């Protein structure tokens, strides 16, 4: 089975789960992103067809929200907080360390599709600054040494 | 009917109309870009601002989206209004410095390019008023284009910025665009719009190319009129 037909099938199932309700578009897109880690083009087109929403409207919503990604992302998503509190506590050094360790810049995914790097402006845990959120786990009071440790652990776990 | 005082004159307008329509109905001119008769009001160009007074309070509202109210006191040319309008114009001018429509309008209202608003070079003439998107959805009914991304990245176009297969090449978006941002090149038998080429239909009688084949097919499908009847241009019908 080709990948495209896989995507279409899964997308149709997700739309069905939401009973094709047009107002559930964002929820549908969230579920698709959960399933594929990003929003594939084929999925967006299928969503439009299955829900009776023009593709242009679906694409408008998908491009509007920062939470949606139209490019494939890595297995682990590293979100570095560069909000005021974290910045003051040295977030830029932590960002630099991640960039050098993973060989990617913010918004990019590394070659083996293991890590994506993203910047966020506050995760509401300023007391823990500098904060890094990896997938759903919060890592507070980040240091250079901790970066290596965490990435090492994730790489081990991924293998 | 609702009675109001607009620029010191007693004006009455039917209920459920918008302030802009009432003001223009009274023969007072208000500059606008996005208020095209073919599309619904959106309040996106922000040039139609007026000052309304209710009791002791006064505030600035977009007249195209503000419904008429009994006893409303409206000022369309107060200093406050003109200041806001000029500021809006300066911002629009900074976004689209090349637009001749904006330049002409700015000249009329005494707005000049401001050094504090750095001029954009990559936005073309698009002011993101969404008129084209609206006409495509509301009038044409195909929704081939949209406004994508957000903030300073926002752009107009077909989804994925690729050729749209639902576009019928009618050019309604070109017609409603207030600044002439959308490019449509018609060369007799071909028409190019939104990066896609459309074959034009020659009139059965005079042979003149008058509409894209896709548009006629769409009209035929929508109205049930056979295609052969539509392949005669409006002049020969």
In words, what does this structure look like?
The complex is a heterodimer of chains A (159) and B (237). Chain A is an alpha+beta fold. Chain A is built from seven helices and four strands; from the N terminus they run H-H-H-H-E-H-H-E-E-E-H. Chain A folds into two domains: 62 residues; 83 residues, Glutaredoxin (3-Layer(aba) Sandwich). Chain A has a four-stranded mixed sheet, covered by helices on one side. Chain A starts with a helix and ends with a helix. The model of chain A has no long low-confidence stretch (mean pLDDT 89). Chain B has 237 residues and is of the alpha+beta class. Chain B contains seven helices and eleven strands. A five-stranded mixed sheet of chain B has the order 2-1-5-3-4, sandwiched between helices. Chain B has a four-stranded antiparallel sheet with strand order 8-9-10-11. A two-stranded antiparallel ribbon of chain B has the order 6-7. In chain B, strand 1 and strand 2 form a beta hairpin. The model of chain B has no long low-confidence stretch (mean pLDDT 93). Chains A and B meet through helix 4 of A and strand 6 of B.
As a percent range, the share of strand residues of chain A is 5-15%
Distance between the termini of chain A: 26 Å
Let me know the average pLDDT of chain B.
93
CATH class of the largest domain in chain B: Alpha Beta
Rg of chain A, Å, rounded:
18 Å
Q: Kindly estimate the percentage of residues of chain B that lie in beta strands according to DSSP.
A: 15-25%
Q: Quick one: CATH superfamily of the largest domain in chain A?
A: Glutaredoxin
CATH architecture of the largest domain in chain A: 3-Layer(aba) Sandwich
Q: Count the E strands of chain A.
A: 4
Number of helices of chain A: 7
Give the helices and strands of chain B as they follow along the chain: EEHEEEHHHEEHEEEEHH
**Uncertain runs of chain A:** none
- The oligomerization state is heterodimer
Structural class of chain B: alpha+beta
| Mean pLDDT level of chain A | 89
